[in-house]
Amino acid sequence: MYSQALNTKDTAAADSSPQADRFQARIDAEERIEPNDWMPDAYRRTLIRQISQHAHSEIVGMLPEGNWITRAPSLRRKAALLAKVQDEGGHGLYLYSAAETLGVSREELTDQLLSGRAKYSSIFNYPTLSWADIGTIGWLVDGAAIMNQIPLCRCSFGPYARAMIRVCREESFHQRQGYEIMLTLCRGTAEQKAMAQDALNRWWWPCLMMFGPPDTESAHSDTSMRWKIKRFTNDALRQKFVDATVPQGHFLGLTFPDPDLRFDEAAGHWRFGTIDWDEFRRVLAGNGPCNRERLSARQKAHADGAWVREAALAHAAKHRKAA
Amino acid sequence: MATTSITIDETPRVRSFLALADDALILGHRTSEWTGHAPTLEEELALANIALDLIGQARALYQATGYAEDELAYLRDPPQFRNALLAELPNGDFAFTIARLFLVSVASDLLWRGAMGSDDPDLAAIAAKAEKETAYHVRHTAEWLIRLGDGTGESHRRAQDAIETLWAYTGEVTAGIDRAAWLRVVSPILVRATLTQPADGWMQSGGRDGRHTEHLGHLLAEMQILPRSYPGAVW
Ligand SMILES: [Fe+2]
Ligand SMILES: [Fe+2]
Ligand SMILES: [Fe+2]
User: What is the DSSP string of B141-177?
Assistant: First the structure.
């Protein structure tokens, strides 16, 4: 669903070879870098990390929403949710393919996820407790994903940029669909509206964390900016999201769980309270409400599927021999 | 939906539509349970596709009965469901899931082909679309069944177990079609999969009359929880 600015520092020293200068000149000229072009190792590593984290997020993100497919309250909602979760799987596949153009295999990346070495978006370590969570995830989580990913459509690395164009189109459909679920709940019974409010209360702050640590703590995004992998800072994207989302929430008749939220007339921005960065770091470190469950669900699917994948390989091998 | 239950005037037409629709809904629901847990990412997407097709078929058929689709899906009790027992059995392992989808899809495909020429314009239109979808389900599941049957020792054993467990439930699925025609499609695939075809013996039945396995009640309890808990709410 989304790429989180996790900003792990790449410690590679700045490269000042003629090749590196030519590379930077191409970037500055807004040229697209393609898989067979020369690129600094650190650029390659940064992209592999970012694209694979994004892919893992799409895959793990199928779990919290998948939790409601069998309980969707109407057949129309059931089909829409199933299609949405399927889209996220498609995004994962698409992104793994983009990462593979950089010389890693999907197996390696999957292994990193299953062994707990790779990160994925912290948002998917929160539970989906009611049907309103499905509306809220579409509205806010896909909404935040779009904010993060629209600039990635102009990312300097061609395969990633192209993947993002298609993915963003689908994420914005998901966002509208999620908002429409919220609208239906908020126009429904008192119980439904309470469900919607409770979901917003639980998801609001974790969604703001999706944009990553504050700019004061993430000096490492400088390199990503210079390489035009990243075009806006975490705080700039977060502010953009809040400005777009708060009026949507008010239109639903909902309140935000932030007593400090107020409109700054002079600046034209919604000002929000302090984000609990301890919670963010704790969830990223593995201690969110669902980290263990999410990872073990992926591990179980992989382990349970081992005999199936082996059978497919064995069959293909026999077939090759026979042919 | 202001009520928590509905009564249906089951004319022969409504009853035959419900049998088809309930097969599709219940099997689609079961298939959707794989989401997030499939053996490969590609198969994740394929199973979701099949589930979506089946749920779409169920919706079109429910709508053609003149009753509201959600009332039919969410406000009937197990004895009012007309699906074949095969559709409601738990997914089991991937071999069981694939073998079941294969055996049912072959029957559905024959049925849709026949129904394309129906005098009932609703049924003819639904069948024309469903047949294309079902032909893909047959292809996809047949390919997997061959891979599993003719794969490793373990996958062969699992596929053979699945076929043997499922066989006794196929009588109900082929009741409305020519079983010999069904076998003409199924048998050659089993041969290619190096699987042994079970002999036709005792066949389980009852689903069409609302006498189900223990599993349907659990499936419906989960599926229907929101409309049942909040009568009259619109979602
Ligand atoms: Fe996505
Ligand atoms: Fe995404
Ligand atoms: Fe999405």
Answer: HHHHHHHHHTS-HHHHHHHHHHHHHHHTTHHHHSTTS
* Torsion A38-A42-A45-A49 (CA) sign: negative
Q: Across the interface, do B226 and A191 touch by the CB < 8 Å criterion?
A: no
Using an 8 Å CB-CB cutoff, list chain A residues near B45.
Answer: 86, 89-90, 93
**B155 CB within 8 Å of a chain A CB:** yes
Please report, as a single letter, which amino acid is at residue A157.
Answer: F
**Cα separation values, A284 from A1, A149, A278, A287, Å:** 17, 21, 10, 7
Minimal CA–CA distance to B234: which of A185, A91, A249? A185
Neighbours of B191 (CB within 10 A): 13
Other C-beta atoms closer than 10 Å to the C-beta of A305 total 18
Residue A218 above 90 pLDDT?
A: no
pLDDT in tens, B57-106: 999 999 999 999 999 999 999 999 999 999 999 999 999 999 999 999 99
- The class level of CATH for B12-200+209-229 reads mainly alpha
CB pair distance less than 8 Å for B39 and A131: no
The SS3 assignment for B213 reads coil
CA of A92 to the centre of ligand 1 (A): 7
| Chain B contacts in chain A segment 169-188 (CB below 8 A) | 181, 184-185, 188
- CA A319, B102, B194: angle at the middle one, nearest 5? 40
Which amino acid, A162? R
Which tens digit of pLDDT belongs to each residue from A157-194?
999 999 999 999 999 999 999 999 999 999 999 999 99
Q: How many helices (H) and strands (E) does chain B have?
A: 11, 0
Contact: A308, B40; criterion CB under 8 Å: yes
User: Could you tell me if A13 lies within 8 Å of chain B, comparing CB atoms?
Assistant: no
Residue-by-residue DSSP string for A43-56: HHHHHHHHHHHHHH
* Out of A205-209, A214-218, A231-235, least confident range: A214-218
Tokens of B227: 């409309």
Contacts with B158 from chain A: Cβ below 8 Å: 307
Q: Are B107 and B177 in contact (CB under 8 A)?
A: yes
Q: What is the dihedral of CA B105, B108, B110, B115, to 10 degrees?
A: -150
Contact A93 B232 (CB under 8 A): no
What are the extents of the domains in chain B? Answer: 12-200+209-229
| CB < 8 Å to B93, chain A | 304
Q: Which uninterrupted H or E stretch holds A262? A: strand A262-264
Residue A262 pairs in a beta bridge with: A271
Per-residue tokens: A31: 């040229």
